[in-house]
Amino acid sequence: MNARRRRISGIAVTTATALGLGTLSACSSDSSAAGTAGNTDKFDVVASFYPMEYLAEQIGGDHVNVTTLTEPGQEPHDLELSARQTAQMGEADAVLYLKSLQPAVDKAVDQSDVKTKIDAATLTKLEDHGDVEHDHGGEEHAEEEHSEGGGHALDPHVWLDPVKYAEIAQGVARAFEKADPDHADDYRKNAEALAKKLSGLDTAFKNGLAKTGSKVFFTNHAAFGYLAERYGLTQEAINGLDPESEPSPARIKELQEEARADGVTTVFYETLVSDKTAKTLAKDAGLKTDVLDPLEGITDKSRGEDYVGVMEANLKALETALGAK
What we know:
It is a single chain. This protein is an alpha/beta fold. Helices cover 40% and strands 10% of the residues. The chain has eleven helices and eight strands. Strands 2-1-3-4 form a four-stranded parallel beta sheet, with helices on both faces. Strands 6-5-7-8 form a four-stranded parallel beta sheet, with helices on both faces. Strand 5 (216-219), helix 8 (225-230) and strand 6 form a beta-alpha-beta unit. The model is unreliable at 1-34, 131-150 and 240-245 (pLDDT under 50).
């Protein structure tokens, strides 16, 4: 199997360390879902974070009222729910979430009496990417429930693989059809239209990354394991350091050696996490920096207005960094 993630000793430390730091805590316990989550004349869906919100909107179309628990700009893994959000979930017709990604949401869903609970993690196969880090505080325990043999946790970032995301979309459509049969035909048609979009995206990635000067990319968040495996790449997670701290000379040297060995040109960072460490590492190692967006939320800094737009921007960034031919 290609693109298994290799550990950079001394550099690839757990992202859980970084995400546990107060400087990265963009979430607030008093944040609330936008709009009204329940009691409308439509099929009311509460989505846990942007990739689930996008699916609900694309598949549901005019028949759904979608609200999200994670506001734009919030780092979703550390989300804490307000009493109001928890209550709104109970008033909805359905909740769409990805178990193991947001422990607070998992707990609220378990305790909620919402009729239709759609766990995206059950709609495709989650994989163990070897030394994928337990990247988010509280996530390790939740993910181990999915792992038969314990050990490494399963990687939840399935939405960054268009093929797996399409599998999830099919399952969401089936759940919508069952829960709201009056509009089943429209849900099915919308899901087919979304499948075409995602298939086109998959084709674009296959073609764009088929021939590259390098197959290795550095990122400050170990979110791209599925994407890397799908398209024959290797992700190196270099974050886990305090974004406000300076990396040690030993780590800089190791990164330089890795970059020279694998033809790495670029250190990727993301919009919801500080770019200071990535830029420091890149400067000292003589590398460029660019954004590779894990699509955990859309903000005015996003390079695209929706999932497809941002993924297309990610493809362009990877083509440039890897020397696509």
